[in-house]
Amino acid sequence: MHVTALPQETLERSQLDSVVRGKPECTLTEIAETLAQVGDRGAVAGPSLRRDGGTVHDEDRGFPDSLDELPPPARDLSPTGARRAAVT
């Protein structure tokens, strides 16, 4: 089951409290920055989460105009990533 296509069903059939729909790179960064500032993660576009006994689907986050806007993978953090050649 892919959470972008079925966020409601994913939350209902799992023990997850939240899921990130679409491309997670920007959404997860924004959630981390918001939580670090003791902000409300509900103000971030992209996630679906359990709240007050129900499920809340925050507004959709748009896709980046270019994949070049996304950070490159941190291959050095993977045990096998350092040995893999980057695809360009």
Tag the structure with descriptive keywords.
3-stranded antiparallel beta sheet, 2 helices, 88 residues, alpha+beta, 14% strand, single chain
Provide a compact summary of the structure.
The protein is of the alpha+beta class. It has 2 helices and 3 strands. Helices cover 22% and strands 14% of the residues.
Protein architecture, described:
The protein has 88 residues and is an alpha+beta fold. The chain has one domain (7-83). It has 2 helices and 3 strands. The protein has helices at residues 7-12, 24-36, and strands at residues 18-20, 47-51, 54-57. The protein starts with 6 loop residues before the first helix and ends in a 31-residue tail after the last strand. The mean pLDDT is 83.
Write the layout of secondary structure elements.
Elements: H1 7-12, E1 18-20, H2 24-36, E2 47-51, E3 54-57
Antiparallel strand pairs: 1-2, 2-3
